[in-house]
Amino acid sequence: MTPAELHDMLRKTQETKGYFFNTDRERVDQLMAALLLNKERYGYMCCPCRLSSGDRAKDQDIICPCVYREPDVKEYGSCYCNLYVSQAWNEGRIPREYVPERRPVEKMF
Fold this sequence. Notes:
mainly alpha
């Protein structure tokens, strides 16, 4: 699968849920490529903005779309990676604030 194919597949399934890709296509393309690289490395598409343990069970919370996406987009209009965003975020109707890491420290090691 290519990054463009992944983009098209995810766009179709996620936009119906109210999650849109960042309009910065270069950033999105980089994240798509990183997701595919992680799938090749680990066998699953873990978040490219976080360190994977390589253990699917331990990384379940950061398999994209991660469990933190919903609260991040609800509160900040964007997920941690800025991959998935709200329509308001894309349109500049809300501020583009830094999204802090929600993943508990104990899951990072």
